[in-house]
């Protein structure tokens, strides 16, 4: 089975407690279960969440050859050249994920350092952002 890594950045371990109008009411564990339910027969899926930029960079370096990477860099979307540079080296399909409509929120969220090193973006659909991204991966891999 092809390997897929799902990475979630800072504060996404707190889903369920974050503003529901942007992020929905599911916990990260519930999102991961929904992902597995639909995809466990197609991909070997690894989940990784960290609040630390360096840990996310190290994980990306370890997954450089994976067939696919879904990444919700959370606040690092807007600030991290390091995550962007690590993603650039990954050879698989890279999909940028956001739960909220990140492009329609505050101006500081319009700065996006990862988008142009990803193949596609899925945002604004809460858990469905992840599920739609995986449906796309299934189609092309
Ligand atoms: C987010 C959007 C980011 O701006 C924010 O910092 C997050 C989550 C999203 O999933 O909508 O923590 O990436």
Provide a compact summary of the structure.
This protein has helices spanning 20-23, 28-39, 53-62, 81-89, 127-140, and strands spanning 2-8, 43-49, 68-72, 93-98, 120-123. The protein has 141 residues and is α/β, with parallel strands linked by helices. The protein has one domain (3-140): Dehydroquinase, class II (Rossmann fold, 3-Layer(aba) Sandwich), CATH 3.40.50.
Structural notes for this entry:
The protein is an alpha/beta fold. It has one domain: Rossmann fold. It has helices at 20-23, 28-39, 53-62, 81-89, 127-140, and strands at residues 2-8, 43-49, 68-72, 93-98, 120-123. A five-stranded parallel sheet has the order 2-1-3-4-5, with helices on one face. The protein is globular, with a radius of gyration of 14 Å. The model has no long low-confidence stretch (mean pLDDT 98). Bound molecules: 1,3,4-trihydroxy-5-OXO-cyclohexanecarboxylic acid.
Q: Which keywords apply here?
A:
141 residues; Rossmann fold; five-stranded parallel beta sheet; 5 helices; 21% strand; binds 1,3,4-trihydroxy-5-OXO-cyclohexanecarboxylic acid
Which CATH class is shown? Alpha Beta
Radius of gyration: 14 Å
What's the story with the biggest beta sheet?
A: 5 strands, parallel
The overall strand count is 5
| Strand order in the sheet with the most strands | 2-1-3-4-5
Measured distance between first and last alpha carbons: 11 Å
* β-sheet strand percentage: 15-25%
Bound molecule kinds, no repeats: 1,3,4-trihydroxy-5-OXO-cyclohexanecarboxylic acid
**CATH architecture, please?**
3-Layer(aba) Sandwich
């Amino acid at each position: 089975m092809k390997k897929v890594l799902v990475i979630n950045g800072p504060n996404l371990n707190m889903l369920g407690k974050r503003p529901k109008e942007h992020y929905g009411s599911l916990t990260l564990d519930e999102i991961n279960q929904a992902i597995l339910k639909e995809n466990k027969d197609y991909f070997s899926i690894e989940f990784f969440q960290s609040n630390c930029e360096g840990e996310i960079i190290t994980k990306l370096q370890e997954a450089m050859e994976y067939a696919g990477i879904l990444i919700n860099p959370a606040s690092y979307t807007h600030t991290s050249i390091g995550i962007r540079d690590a993603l650039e080296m990954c050879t698989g399909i890279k999909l940028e994920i956001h739960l909220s409509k990140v492009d329609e929120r505050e101006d500081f969220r319009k700065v996006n350092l990862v988008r142009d090193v990803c193949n596609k973006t899925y945002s604004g659909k809460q858990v469905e952002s992840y599920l739609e991204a995986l449906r796309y991966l299934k189609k092309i891999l």
